[in-house]
Structures are given as structure tokens and as C-alpha cells.
Fold this protein.
Amino acid sequence: MWLLGADADEEAGAASVEKITGLIKDGGGDVDGAALWGRRTLAYQVEKNKEGSYFLANFKLDSAATPTLELALDADQNVIRHILIRHNKPVPAVEESDEPEERPRDRGGRDNRRPRRP
């Protein structure tokens, strides 16, 4: 998963996906899928960006080639955050979404409190 800054447009996003999938294939890997998760407001500023575009790619890559991919992600000026996660089990296919997913808000059990005194 990687995150592009607010100044990156759709062309920069497509170029980023092409670049990263190309790096994976050059390292002898196989890309199962790559998709844009959407533009979202960040919980806190990251390198002066208040929002960013999230991208996810599922791929298989030899562990010897991951440092090269990590260095390329670090060197890319448009990528403000990235993370590589190793899965031992198969991962579901990546699907591109147009709308953010509606999730119920977890209030941590605070809905059952007594009403406040006047």
C-alpha cells in the first residue's frame, strides 16, 4: 500500500501504479492486482499534506527483491507513505471503489451511559 500526496492527480496516480508494478515485474514478481482506494482526508498532516490518494497492490515477490522496491518507494517524491506487508495466506482480489465504504461508528460502549444530570 502506498499513499500519494494531495498534489498528485489521476495521471500521477496511473504513472505511480505503472512504475510500481513495473518494479515488481522487473524484480521477478507477479502482480495479482492494483487499484486506487480513493482520495481521503488524513487523520494528521503528512509532509504538509492534509489529504492523499491511497493505492493498494497485491503481488508476489521474492524477499531478496523487496529492498529494491522499498528503496524505489522511498525515492519517489510523490509517495508520502508506504508499507509492505507479507501474507502467508492468499489475499482476496483488489477491487477499485468509487465511493468510500460506509462503516458503522464504534463508540466503544458509550451509547449505554446514563443521561447527564441537569
